[in-house]
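Tutorial handout. Part one gives the primary structure; part two gives the three-dimensional structure as tokens.
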Amino acid sequence: MNSDVVFLRDLYFQVRWAMRRLAFRNPLLDFDRLLIVKRFGQETYPDVCLNHMPWVSRPGGDLCLLTLRGPEEAPLVKNLLNGRLGPGHVHGADLRWDARRIVFGYAKAQSDQPPEGWLDRAQSFRLRRTEEPIHIFEISVSGRGLRQLTRGEWSDLDPTYAPNGDIVFVSERCGTSLQCNEYDKDETSCNLYSMRPDGSGIRRLSVSKDGDYLPHTLDDGSIGYTRWEYHERSWAFIQSLWTVRPDGTQADAIFKQHFVNPWSLEDVRSIPGTRNTRLVCIAAGHHTLAAGPVVVVTPGVGINEPRGIRIVTPGVVPPEGGMDGVPVAEGGVRDQGGYYMTPWALSEKTFLASYSFGTGKTGLSSEIDPTGYAIYLIDVFGTKELISRDATISCFTPIPVRPRPRPPVLPDLTLYASGHMKRDARDSLSPPRGERARVRGAGIGSRSTSSKSRTSLPLTPALSPATGGEGGERKTSYATCLVSTVSYGCEGIPPERIRFIRISEPIGWPYDNAHGGQRYGEDHRYSGAGAERKNLTSWTPLRILGDVPVERDGSAKFRVPADTAVYFQILDENRMELRRMRSFISFQPGEHRSCMGCHESRGVTPVPAENAASLAMTRDAATPLPAPWGDRPVSFLRDIQPVLDRHCVSCHSGLKPAGGIDLFTGLTSHDAEVAGYGHNRAYETILEKELVSVSAVRKQDASITPPLAYGSHKSKLITCLTDAAHRDQVALSGEDRLRLVVWIDANAPYHDRFVNKRTAQTAYDLASDKELLKNLTTVHERRCAACHKTDEVTRLDWIDFRAPARSLFLTARLSKETGGSAKCSEPVYANRSDADYSTARELVDVAVAKAWQNPRRDLAALERPAQSAQAGAPASVRAAQSGEIRLSTGSE
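Part two.
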């Protein structure tokens, strides 16, 4: 090495040491101890919505106190747990305001090695039944007083101290499945919960079908968190920042609800001295860890204004998606790549954070680095100094160990405060809606060591309907909403045109340990041409809770069920949608919520509704008026197809349906393996011909929905019923018209229930019965080949499962005198005694009997018609109805 190189190297180190010493003289480093979490970085499930699986990281690490010793010496490390909880890893931690106690999640493991199959996401159903869930513990800063706060069958993690001493955390105990990923995946989602300091009084704070994650108490006393939200929205851009009071009231989006980049903002925390006007967080991707650049957001600029983002580390980009916003004015840290996680603000210019150079692990996303994350001090001027690194394991979650101001204690505004409801009354250690999990009283240090499955939840029906509705559990607690001016934010809609508000519930996918995650849509089984048709108009079943009136001054006051995810639509006098809310929200029992207008976004803070007199304020809260089918989830076959049968099918069915529009009731199938995946012919046609205007989820971005973007006003199915060709022939009743309108404005769902992947018997799918198709083809080859190709008249979607005798290939070949439709120019069957007619009719009768005996999920929504197989019916039909014959499903 020549002398010039040596000189430059020595000079560089002299300058760097000088800069390091200067950085450590920052008056904000007025603490000598730092709390950190040592654990291996997450190696599987690289989504914020999946970090709660106990096996996502290798066992190892500890909750550690660092004693800082200046710029030239490594900190002293004190392990607080020291193996007292056995193998496992810390999963989220918080320091109490007085700096005396630490609350944390801990994922116990059966050994110091990860379980077999832990990197294979298709193994999650098995692993959930054998691995201990994550539980929450508390310990003093001195290392004494270790105690376990939560137990049970569900993971509880990422705790944060609320100002009143309660502990807010996320938990799987909501019992819902993640609305994402492939059919063979079984993954849960999390909601927000709280408990008393001793672990009692667990209550649910949020009801999200998709998931709420990474909560932190903010300086104004509220809880900040990231919401993952699928509701008629794109799959990619829907992780935004929300806040909620510690009692679960006033949940609302505060930033990035309706713009694209970055795809996600996560791990939000307050910045001291800013009065919560600015927040620090990580800009991340959708399929990534909460890793990326450190950013400061200013919600007051506008909830959907990317210019509210200032990038502290502009040399880092999110691991997925783009990055809007601008670098901080001072320039920021100019890294050459890498990723930050778990930021902690010392001021609006200086931060602690975990950082990895982004070399990652071979074969995995670059932000996945089991041992590479270390604690750094950074600032907006470009400072970046190492605080602590362990070459064998990653370091996260830096928190200075010093007392800090306690945020204001926000009063409890729910029925719990008044004593009308008791904590633990709704969500304690058991799953929701009647399911019961076995709660184990595991003590500190105990863990599951058995290789056998943990006790499973009770079996649920093979095809699970969305809970509630007729015969379901009813809501008994409510919140009250007051809207002062519904038309606020609805440009182009005359205020007097708005007459009703509709309230609906998107229903979460169920999860239990017996069946894993149940499914709704088919989005991850299909791709390429036709995928959108086969896939989703909605992520989930919809329940229409009902409509409430809007007063003539544009105000409304109404009740909504508490503990229920709901969204709103504004309607005209015909109850047709004018605008919809592509988001959802939940309320607490007894909560009173007021707002201005119908808006998914706002650029200014509206005047609180109570400050303005309105007609609604003088009224009692209205109770929603249900849809024509009640408040059970919408089923196309049950609630809509009968309208088409009465008014449309006579012309729009058969070999040459009018206008090429086939609205027959017969079933279709999309999947030979999953009987519950399929629609009926009418629904397929409606989507293929774009007869309804829907918010197709794969075609959406993050933008705000303008009025009249979708729905019944924009749907050909509604407009054609009043055109000249139909006006005189189709006389819809008021209820039939309302059925069509309400269904379309619910985004035209088909199914009212879920597919259970693990059942004792696979449902029979008539539409994919290859043996049935083969046998019918044999008949038609004999009798129809002279005029038709046999495949064009041998269609299983021509079978009428309500009235088999009305199946189209049976009636078309009979004369009207013999009870047929005489669609063929000459009768093919002389009468119903014809041998081939009898053969075809028996094949149909047997198949229909099997379909009702073991229904797929769309048929399960219907009331079984009166059985035709009495004493005079063929033996094969009676056998099918009794379940005594083997099903020819072709769908195992």
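Part three, for discussion. The CA atoms of residues 662 and 855 lie 24 Å apart. The radius of gyration is 31 Å.
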